[in-house]
Amino acid sequence: xxxxxxxxxxQVPAETIAALAKGFNLxxxxxxxxxxxxxxxxxxxxxxxGMTHIRLPVPAESVMSYYSSTEDRDAQLAALDRALRDLTAxxxxxxxxxxxxxxxxxxHKKAPAIAMGQLQDAWKALAPVIARYPAKAVSxxxxxxPDVSADIWQAQAEQLAKFVRELLPDxxxxxxxxxxxxxxxxxxxRALSDPNVVYAIHFYDPMAFTHQGHWDANDPLSxxxxxxxxxxxxxxxxxxxxxxxxxxxxxxALKLLxxxxxxxxxxxxxxxxxxxxxxxxxxHRPIIINEFGVLKAHAPRDSRLRWLRSVVEHAEQQCWGWAxxxxxxxxxxxxxxxxxxDNGVMRALLRRP
Length: 353
Hints:
Helix content is 45%, strand content 12%. It is of the alpha/beta class. The chain has 2 domains: 14-205 and 268-349, Alpha-Beta Barrel (TIM Barrel), CATH 3.20.20; 219-263, no CATH class.
């Protein structure tokens, strides 16, 4: 018998909470207006399997007048409109995620007031597109992984939420804390006065496992490969990897591995999600883990599936929604050989035998 959901105080529609329950990200899909049409059969299959939610990252700079021409901005907004039309027609709930790259993040750090103006500029452009769709079908995520201090983001999030609320009176807003939206960062974030808000965290712990074989050869995580989960210092693959890194004098990677064997032992998912659980108990607001995943090229398959299932189990125990990062790239839920959804990943995410 499952535990009852924690008592919450909010005005997020029940149908929105239900729609956010099971999802995945479509990273980069607004850049090519034909991608959704090309993948329509697969997307419908994922919807039929039980997936209810798509988080749709929109490159922030592409809808900010500081970075984009009017022509390019209009093209991005038109692509977003087509994406929302097609995805909602398939029965998906869609979160429009303002997802910045390094350019905006640098501005945000160096000139937060100017960056705040660009955030408002972006949402002023996005809101009319979102407003074409029912509030029960589309939500607005203020900013992915804000890269400023907690104090600056707290003030800006409160101001930006009010700004977006005036533009979209009934739309559910999604917001998360700083520091890559880690669960322990949520404890320092005050719940907004707006009751129609869902709070988003991201989860990739332990990084030595989820980001092993990192795409950047200069990142020490790229030297870690074949690390199993759970992580135990005495397990043969861990001992072998330790010896291999030591022999190659990969000191930075070795340090990450040692930290993972210390902090990654036991039920690290439960341990590292605990701060978000405490925050919810204190603030009584809904939470979603709208990014989590494992870079699949060099992670042991059974370990990856075990980790994914564990994150989903812990989220659903708290009645949190979740959205896997992502569909068809390095972390993707697709089988690279068949081009179809990976049956093992789908069973892990949907907690099926």
